[in-house]
Specification:
Layout lengths: L19 H32 L5 H23 L7 H7 L1 H11 L9 H24 L8 H4 L9 H19 L5 H27 L5 H19 L4 H19 L4 H27 L10 H19 L3 H9 L2 H10 L15 H4 L14 H9 L17 H9 L1 H21 L8 H12 L7 H27 L1
Length: 486
């Protein structure tokens, strides 16, 4: 009797090259996107120089260098019409709002530091960016060509399934927020599973929109699904998760169409700026004063109240609505605090916030008492005087990777952290080279794009949350696919 067939599965043939006319249109769109990006970069740098509160020419030059170096990967991605999802490019672009603009504008705590500290912090961010760019540019990779990893999970033309994934997340968010049907002990696992499904479906649907593969009715369904996801997620006053879904949709559209929807980007920025300005007052009312959470029918009034507080903040401070979001998203002043105190007042931590990373990747059902990833954030908050031992569990300070790296190893830590991110993002992108978005390789890259926004996390929190999402959206479905095929 013949034994089971153990020969490896044949490698699927590579996808046919695009038709010359389609390739020409895509190349033209990429060149236009690159040209627009160069023009926007020059105009943006000029505007920052004109509006800047800085008087030191060296700091002005370093601020310009931060913006240019952060934008270079995205410009290169557009110029070369690269096919990989722009995860590393988005990671670098986050340096502009989190570090470069606070240096230029000096609206918040940045103006309290000596110019020498500002100089060291700017040099540290530039070192992080430079090593990340070099590592990403020169890391070698070999695509994983196994059919299980690369093969499409959907047949062409199945545009309804990404739409279904969006609405599955909508139903989950409604059930979690407004019913008692989900037990508390399963909420975390189900949140990772459905939020991951929502992330992937949002990106895929937006990319199909950019390729003109959706009908008018399907585009309306995607827009409504995005709106409902945003409303149900933001109703808990966690704005970063809600915003990331909309940003991911814009990136998915741009990556395929090579066009920037300027009206949508400007509208989103203004909306998020107003909500950021009012978030503090809303949290005071609904978190600390114990106001009852808004019910489903009360959501219109809830968001009207939120927008009202955001606009009132702008009127009371007599500043544009964008000022508040720059102050609230700034990580540059955290970098200044860490550099001001280390090592004279606070010795370098020597890897204290990194040592638990191998342990937190162990599933909790195997080791129930494993270290929590947020312990790294608490260690930093206590070491730099942001909280005490007693209050550390109730206070979360956004440190960001550069500040954490300097707190552990100084400028060497900044260089190593940048090199790690550049290497890691290039490896994952290389392993997924040539894979369609609706494949396990493509899903991995979509998650990486979504996590590239999370600039405020420590490395342990960033890796553990990404690992959990990979397990829920990639590893478990892959295991089930293998089991069913057998």
């Amino acid at each position: 009797m013949d034994g089971p067939d153990t020969s490896p599965a044949p490698t699927p043939p590579p996808p046919p090259p695009p038709a010359p006319a389609a390739a020409g249109r895509q190349s033209l769109a990429s060149r236009r996107l690159h040209g627009f990006g160069c023009f926007a970069l020059a105009a943006f740098v000029g505007w920052q120089l004109y509006r800047s509160q800085l008087e030191d020419p060296l700091l002005l030059a370093l601020g310009c260098a931060m913006i240019v170096l952060a934008a270079l990967p995205a410009l290169r991605w557009a110029r070369l019409a690269e096919k990989h999802l722009p995860a590393f490019e988005v990671l670098c672009l986050t340096v502009i709002p989190f570090y470069a603009l606070p240096l230029f504008r000096q609206h918040g705590a940045e103006r309290l530091f000596d110019p020498e500290i500002l100089l060291h912090a700017a040099l540290g961010v530039l070192l992080f960016l430079a090593t990340a760019n070099v590592a990403h540019r020169y890391t070698r990779f070999r695509p994983i060509t196994h059919p299980l990893w690369q093969a499409p999970l959907l047949r062409p033309g199945r545009s309804q399934l990404p739409l279904l994934g969006i609405y599955l997340n909508v139903v989950f968010l409604y059930t979690l927020n407004y019913t008692d049907l989900i037990p508390w002990e399963f909420a975390g696992l189900l949140r990772a599973l459905f939020f991951g499904t929502g992330i992937a479906s949002t990106y895929i649907a937006a990319s199909m929109w950019g390729r003109h593969e959706l009908s008018v009715g399907e585009r309306g369904g995607v827009a409504l699904g995005l709106f409902l996801q945003f409303v149900f997620t933001a109703s808990g006053l966690y704005l970063i998760s809600a915003t990331s879904l909309l940003l991911l949709a814009i990136i998915g559209y741009v990556s395929e169409s090579r066009r920037i929807p300027i009206a949508a980007v400007v509208s989103l920025f203004l909306l998020i700026a107003v909500l950021h300005n009012g978030k503090g007052e809303m949290r005071r009312i609904y978190w600390f004063e114990g106001e009852r959470r808004a019910g489903l029918t009360e959501l219109p009034g809830f968001f009207q109240e939120w927008i009202g507080h955001g606009l009132q903040f702008s009127r009371e401070t007599d500043r544009p609505v964008s000022t508040g979001i720059l102050e609230r998203t700034s990580l540059f002043h955290i970098m200044c605090v860490v550099m001001d105190r280390s090592p004279s007042l606070t010795p370098h931590l020597g890897g204290e916030t990194y040592k638990s990373i191998p342990l937190i990747l162990i599933p909790r059902f195997i080791w129930a008492d494993k270290p929590a990833p947020h312990d790294s954030n608490r260690t930093l908050a206590i070491a730099y005087g942001f909280s005490t031992e007693d209050s550390a569990r109730n206070v979360s300070i956004a440190f960001g990777t550069p500040a954490e790296a300097y707190a552990n190893f100084g400028f060497l830590g900044l260089a190593l952290a940048g090199a790690f991110y550049g290497w890691f993002f290039r490896k994952v992108a290389g392993w997924s080279e040539g894979a369609p978005a609706i494949s396990f390789a493509g899903l991995s890259m979509i998650l990486l794009v979504a996590w590239s926004f999370q600039a405020e996390m420590t490395l342990a929190v960033w890796l553990s949350s990404l690992f959990q999402a990979m397990i829920a959206l990639v590893a478990l479905p892959m295991a089930l696919k293998v089991a069913f095929n057998r």
